[in-house]
Design a protein that fits this description.
CATH topology of one domain: Glycerol-3-phosphate (1)-acyltransferase
Structural class: alpha/beta
Radius of gyration: 33 Å
Protein name: Phospholipid/glycerol acyltransferase domain-containing protein
Helix content: 25-40%
Organism: Nocardia terrae
Distance between the termini: 108 Å
Strand order of the largest sheet: 1-9-6-2-5-3-4
CATH superfamily of one domain: Glycerol-3-phosphate (1)-acyltransferase
CATH architecture of one domain: 3-Layer(aba) Sandwich
InterPro entries: P_lipid/glycerol_AcTrfase_prd, Plipid/glycerol_acylTrfase
Order of helices and strands: HHHEEHEHHEHEHHEEHEEH
GO molecular function, one term: acyltransferase activity
Largest sheet: 7 strands, mixed
Shape: globular
Mean pLDDT: 88
Number of helices: 11
Strand content: 5-15%
Length: 339
């Protein structure tokens, strides 16, 4: 056996003439490459698809609540929030006040809103609504509806009565929610600043009327809200609220007791005052809030705000629009509590 290794000469093999392998052709519509993902992302997707137990959900909710509370406390303690000249505290409004109202609106009154597109996305506007219910919950539900249903989540600045701001605790919260006194000066300042203001021109005559007069609009004061809109050139948006009349049906009024307490009326309802604190629970009526088409004031001069006849005509137009919409929605409603 020979010990000499056999040597293969490389130049004997003709590489240049060797045929190339055909490149792989991928079927049409199928990607040739799959994007690379990390193992952490794939594990997170698998965990997200797995059903969570009740304990996990509770722990997650508690943890989220703790983080939310800690962040809220930090901002309040460090002063990381702003308050405008009227007292509006948007941080407190969106973190505490509105979240407290949502269960009442969504679960108890089951509020349905229509015509929200009639509220402008920018600039001032004046919402004029009917007032009812013995206790002014309609103002709170209206503010929540404007904030939650409007694409820009605009803050409604309600022009409220003096009694609201004279009441301990409630007055301070009303200021922080952005509300102010129902006077022409404050109304014009808000509207000129491009805010959405809300007014209930019926006042105590509307909210304190007997249940037998439900959904019958009372007189609209002296038309001060119209003059503010005309002077600032903002549109007036009629708003009709159905459902508020049934929450505390007013059967009688203890006027001597009302005078003694210094309040406009002392109502007697099916549950109050004989059931004590339980009488404060409103009936779960079904609510409908409809925003009508804006009534333009652009065609008027600021000086027209001093013309009583012009103000009366616009006021009457707004009132008739609201009353007509109330009747229309009442006809469609089959039951005050189920809708």
């Amino acid at each position: 056996m020979s010990d000499v290794a056999k040597v293969i000469r490389l130049h004997d093999v003709d590489f240049e003439t060797r045929p190339n392998r055909p490149s792989r052709v991928w079927p049409a519509g199928e990607p040739a490459l799959t994007p690379v993902t990390s193992l952490t992302d794939r594990l997170a997707e698998v965990e997200a698809r797995q059903p969570k137990s009740l304990g996990d959900l509770i722990r997650g909710s508690v943890a989220e609540g703790v983080r939310y509370t800690a962040d809220f406390a930090r901002r309040r303690l460090t002063g990381d929030y702003q308050v405008d000249e009227f007292g509006l505290d948007e941080h407190l409004l969106e973190s505490v006040i509105l979240p407290m109202l949502r269960p009442l609106s969504d679960l108890w009154f089951r509020v349905e809103v229509s015509g929200i597109e009639n509220i402008p996305e920018v600039g001032g506007a004046l919402i004029v609504a009917n007032h009812a219910g013995t206790v002014p919950l309609d103002g709170l539900m209206l503010q929540l509806a404007v904030h939650d249903r409007h694409p820009k989540q605009r803050a409604l600045r309600i022009l409220a009565a003096d009694l609201i701001f004279e009441t301990p605790i409630i007055g301070g919260l009303a200021r922080k929610a952005g509300h102010t006194l129902a006077c022409p000066a404050d109304a014009e300042r808000l509207l000129r600043a491009g805010e959405v203001a809300g007014v209930f021109p019926e006042g105590y005559k509307g909210i304190g009327k007997p249940y037998g007069d439900r959904y019958k609009l009372q007189r609209f004061g002296r038309g001060g809200f119209v003059s503010a809109a005309v002077r600032t050139g903002v549109p007036i948006i009629p708003c009709s609220i159905v459902g508020s009349e049934e929450i505390y049906p007013k059967l009688a009024d203890l006027k001597p007791l009302a005078r003694l307490l210094g309040i406009p009326y002392f109502p007697v309802t099916p549950l109050f005052p004989h059931l004590g604190p339980l009488g404060a629970i409103p009936f779960p009526s079904k609510w409908y809030i409809e925003f009508g088409e804006p009534i333009s004031t652009a065609g008027y001069e600021p000086a027209d705000a001093d013309d009583p006849m012009t103000m009366f005509e616009i006021t009457d137009q707004v009132r008739e629009t609201i009353q007509g919409t109330l009747y229309k929605n009442l006809i469609k409603r089959r039951n005050p509590f189920t809708g």
